[in-house]
């Protein structure tokens, strides 16, 4: 799959300028380089301009529909990922509240690990995901939390109840993390990128 995630590191004003300059240059070079060849091949038949106009209109119409559908899909994907982030944040918060009711020293250990895990996601994991890289250290931290959670032995009925609820909360937090990581490598299929580039070439060249 083609990776264009680097484009998000370009400021909007610079990206807009590059797109305008690139399209203008591409179109100008295409027109001047293909003009003589087109004249020799077509030999100026009657109705040439009308035929070319119809061709460009048809290509532009289908190309516009394709771009519109791609845009809608990208917007839907963005909304889904945004909702997934909210669900993961909620699951981490819920888990942290539950481990805060554990006796010492388990409480302090799990709280510290959860804070460290959250800080890693915000400060490092998201930076890697922005580049299309799956952060593997997050899995290690999840495993460390799970080991300490499993090593806890409840001694009272209330602790047993709390522990069972916390295990369910931990499973949900792990699930939300997996779903987030699954979205890291999601993107536009190569065949659609080919359609975008070919459509652009047909219209502007």
Tell me what the structure shows.
- With 205 residues, this protein is an all-alpha fold.
- The protein is built from six helices and no strands.
- The chain has helices at residues 12-42, 48-99, 106-130, 137-150, 157-182, 190-204.
- The longest helix is centred in the middle third of the chain and has 52 residues, at 48-99.
- The radius of gyration is 27 Å and the shape is elongated.
Order of helices and strands: HHHHHH
State the secondary-structure class.
mainly alpha
Low-confidence stretches: none
Largest sheet: none
Give a concise summary.
With 205 residues, the protein is an all-alpha fold. Helices cover 80% and strands 0% of the residues.
Which structural traits does this protein have?
single chain, 205 residues
Topology at a glance:
Layout: H1 12-42, H2 48-99, H3 106-130, H4 137-150, H5 157-182, H6 190-204
């Amino acid at each position: 799959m083609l990776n264009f995630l680097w484009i998000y590191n370009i400021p909007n004003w610079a990206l807009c300028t590059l797109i305008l300059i690139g399209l203008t240059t591409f179109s100008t070079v295409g027109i001047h380089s293909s003009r003589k060849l087109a004249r020799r091949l077509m030999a100026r038949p009657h109705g040439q301009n009308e035929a070319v106009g119809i061709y460009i209109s048809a290509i532009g119409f289908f190309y516009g529909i394709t771009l519109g559908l791609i845009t809608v899909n990208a917007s839907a994907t963005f909304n889904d990922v945004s909702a997934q982030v909210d669900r993961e944040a909620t699951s981490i918060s819920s888990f942290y509240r539950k481990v805060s009711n554990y006796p010492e020293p388990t409480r302090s250990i799990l709280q510290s690990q959860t804070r460290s895990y959250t800080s890693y996601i915000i400060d490092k994991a998201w930076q890697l995901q922005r580049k299309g890289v799956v952060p593997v250290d997050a899995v290690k931290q999840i495993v460390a939390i799970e080991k300490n959670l499993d090593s806890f032995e409840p001694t009272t009925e209330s602790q047993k109840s709390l522990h069972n609820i916390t295990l369910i909360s931990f499973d949900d937090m792990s699930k939300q993390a997996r779903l987030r990581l699954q979205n890291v490598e999601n993107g536009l299929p190569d065949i659609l990128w080919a359609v975008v580039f070919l459509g652009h070439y047909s219209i502007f060249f």
